[in-house]
Design brief:
Elements lengths: L19 E5 L3 H12 L3 E5 L11 E4 L2 E4 L5 E2 L6 H9 L6 E4 L3 E4 L6 E3 L3 H12 L3 H19 L9 H15 L8 H7 L13 H15 L8 H7 L2 H4 L1 E4 L4 H13 L3 E3 L4 E7 L2 E7 L4 E3 L2 E4 L3 H8 L5 H4 L8 E11 L10 E5 L9 E6 L12 E11 L1 H4 L6 H21 L3 H4 E7 L1 H8 L21 E3 L2 E3 L10 H18 L9 H10 L1
C-alpha cells in the first residue's frame, strides 16, 4: 500500500507557519498520527502520563520480566497491510517483529484444539477438519473482509461528519464496489452493514458458532449474535493475514514509533500527565500538565477514551462528549501476569491460546494465554518465561467493590484461580511453575493507563455507527480505539494514520492515500 508524503520542505502550504501539534497519550493511535505529522514537518509533542509508551499495547518491566500489559497479539504487518502503510508514512525502515505460526490455538470445551494458521493451505485444511460443510461461512468472511480492509486502508471519513466527507466516502466506496470479487455484490454488503454476523452461521454447527464467538469477543468485544457482520468479517481476518511477535514485547511497536517521532524532530515526554486544556474562542491554545508545564497548541489530538476526553475538556467538550452516559459501556479486563519456569513449556509450543470452558464467555469462562517466546531473552530471566493471562469482565461488577476491601480481595483471588484453571488445560503444571503472580483488575488499568472505569477494547462493535468521528472540534481530534476502524494494534494504527491525513488536509496538505480498488485487487491475489 503506497502512502506518499510530500517532501519535507513542501510539507506545509506556502505562507503557513509550522503548526504546534500536541498529542495527549502515547498509545498506538496517537503515536501513529504523531509520527506521520512529524515527518510532514509539523512541530509535534506527545505528552504521556506514564513512564513508557503503548498504553494498552505497552510492555512493563518487573523483577526481570517484561510483561505485555494488555494486547498480546499483533497483526497487520503483511505487505500492503496497515502496519506496512504506517511504516512507509512515518519513515520507519523496519518493525522489530518476527512472524508467528500458528497465529492462535483455540481450545473449545469438546474436541481437539483448532489451529488458526496464517498459511492459507493449512488454514483451509484445518477449518475443513473442524467445520466440515461450513466452508461457505469462511468464503463469505474472507471475501467480505477483503472489501472492508480495502475500504479502511483508503482512510475513509467514517462516520462522515460533513458534506465534503460524505462525498469523499462515496468516492472511496464506489472504488471498492468496482473491484468486488465474484460472489460478492453491493446488495449483500448493504445487508451486512445492517445485520449481525450470526445470519451467516449455520444453525446446525454450534461448535463453529462458539469458535467464532470466542474470536469475536477478543476482536470486536461482542459475539456473533450482536456483532455487525462487516466488522466481524474484518476482525476475524487478522490472524489469517499473519501474526507477529515483537522483540522485547508488544511495547516495542510503540517504542519504535516514539523513536521515529524524536528522530523526525518531535518530542515524546513521559511523566507528563495533562490536567487542563486552555481554550480561546472555541479553539485550544495551550495544554497544561501536572508538573506545571504549558505547551502551545494549534492542533490537539486526544489519544484518549471519549470519557477521558470529556473529563479533560470539561465545559468546552463538544455536545456528543457531554451527552455520554456516566459510565463506559463495554468491557474491562482481569489479567494475571506470571513468571513461570520455562521447563513447563514444551519445545515448539504455540505462544497464543484462547481457552473456552463454558458459556457465557468472559469472567473466567473464557481466557486468553500468551507466552513469551524462548528466543526473546529480554522478556524473562534465564530459565523463565513471561505469561499474560486475561479474561473479559463486566465493569459494573467491580464498580461497587471497595479497593483493598475483603470482597475485592476475595474476587481478585477467585478470578486469579479461574485463569490458572483455564491455563492448566493448555499447559499442565503452569500454576505450580509460577514463581511470580501479579493480578490485574479494571482498577489496575485505571491506575496505569488512566482509562476511566478501566474500560478497554473500545466499543462493542454492534453497529458501524458505534465509532466516534475523529474530529471533535475544528482543531481537536480523537485517536485510539474509539474511532473507526476500532480496536487492535493494526486498527488503531490505521485510525492514527487517518487522523494525520485529515489534519494535513485541514491545513491544505494531503497524504496520498491508496486507491481502495487497487488494494482490494491485491487482497484478492493473496
Amino acid at each position: 500500500m503506497a502512502v506518499r508524503l510530500p517532501a519535507m520542505e513542501d510539507a506545509t502550504p506556502a505562507g503557513t507557519r509550522v503548526k504546534h501539534v500536541v498529542v495527549v497519550g502515547a498509545g498506538i493511535g496517537g503515536l501513529s498520527a504523531a509520527a506521520v505529522l512529524a515527518r510532514a514537518g509539523l512541530d509535534v509533542t506527545v505528552l504521556e502520563a506514564h513512564i513508557y509508551a503503548g498504553g494498552c499495547a505497552g510492555t512493563f518491566f518487573h523483577q526481570g520480566y517484561r510483561f505485555d500489559a494488555g494486547a498480546t497479539l499483533a497483526a497487520g504487518f503483511y505487505p500492503g497491510g496497515p502496519m506496512d502503510a504506517l511504516a512507509r508514512a512515518a519513515g520507519i525502515p523496519a518493525w522489530p517483529v518476527r512472524p508467528e505460526e500458528p497465529a492462535l490455538t483455540v481450545h473449545l470445551p469438546q474436541g481437539d484444539p483448532i489451529q488458526r494458521w496464517s498459511d492459507p493451505t493449512r488454514w483451509i485444511a484445518e477449518r475443513a477438519r473442524v467445520n466440515g460443510p461450513a466452508e461457505s461461512f469462511w468464503e463469505w468472511q474472507e471475501q467480505t473482509a477483503a472489501a472492508v480492509w480495502a475500504l479502511a486502508s483508503a482512510l475513509p471519513p467514517w462516520p462522515p461528519a460533513s458534506l465534503p466527507e460524505l462525498t469523499d466516502l462515496a468516492r472511496i466506496g464506489v472504488s471498492v464496489l468496482r473491484h468486488l470479487p465474484s460472489g460478492l455484490h453491493a446488495g449483500s454488503l448493504a445487508v451486512d452493514a445492517l445485520t449481525s454476523a450470526a445470519r451467516h452461521l449455520p444453525a446446525a454447527h454450534p461448535q463453529l458458532r462458539l469458535f467464532v464467538d470466542g474470536q469475536l469477543l477478543i476482536s470486536a468485544q461482542t459475539t456473533s449474535a450482536h456483532a455487525n457482520a462487516l466488522y466481524a468479517a474484518a476482525a476475524l481476518d487478522l490472524p489469517r493475514r499473519g501474526v507477529v511477535q515483537a522483540e522485547g514485547g508488544m511495547g516495542a511497536i510503540a517504542h519504535t514509533l516514539a523513536e521515529s517521532i524524536k528522530r523526525l524532530g518531535g518530542r515524546v515526554l513521559y511523566r507528563h500527565e495533562v490536567t487542563a486544556i486552555r481554550m480561546h474562542a472555541g479553539a485550544p491554545v495551550s495544554v497544561e500538565t501536572r508538573r506545571g508545564g504549558s505547551f502551545p497548541v494549534d492542533v490537539l489530538i486526544l489519544n484518549l477514551t471519549p470519557w477521558n476526553a470529556a473529563a479533560l475538556l470539561g465545559s468546552d467538550a463538544p455536545y456528543r462528549l457531554r451527552r455520554l452516559p456516566e459510565h463506559p459501556a463495554g468491557w474491562g479486563a482481569f489479567t494475571v501476569y506470571a513468571g513461570i519456569d520455562a521447563s513447563v513449556v514444551p519445545d515448539g509450543f504455540p505462544l497464543h491460546h484462547q481457552v473456552i470452558l463454558r458459556q457465557p464467555l468472559g469472567e473466567g469462562n473464557s481466557a486468553f494465554l500468551s507466552i513469551s517466546p524462548a528466543w526473546d531473552a529480554a522478556r524473562a530471566p534465564a530459565g523463565r518465561r513471561a505469561v499474560t493471562l486475561s479474561t473479559h469482565t463486566r465493569l459494573d461488577s467491580w464498580r461497587g467493590l471497595e479497593k483493598d476491601g475483603p470482597a475485592y480481595s476475595e474476587r481478585e483471588a477467585v478470578y486469579t484461580e479461574r485463569l490458572f484453571g483455564a491455563a492448566e488445560r493448555v499447559l499442565p503444571g503452569i500454576r505450580s511453575a509460577a514463581g511470580l503472580v501479579l493480578p490485574g483488575t479494571p482498577d489496575t488499568f485505571v491506575r496505569f493507563t488512566r482509562r476511566i472505569g478501566g474500560w478497554v477494547g473500545g466499543f462493542p462493535q454492534t453497529s458501524l455507527f458505534r465509532s466516534f468521528a475523529p474530529r471533535l472540534a475544528p482543531a481537536i481530534w480523537l485517536a485510539g480505539d474509539s474511532i473507526f476502524p476500532g480496536q487492535s494494534v493494526a486498527a488503531t494504527a490505521l485510525g492514527g494514520l487517518r487522523v494525520a491525513h485529515a489534519v494535513l488536509r485541514s491545513l491544505g496538505t494531503c497524504l496520498e492515500h491508496p486507491a481502495a480498488g487497487q488494494q482490494l485487487a491485491g487482497d484478492a491475489i493473496r
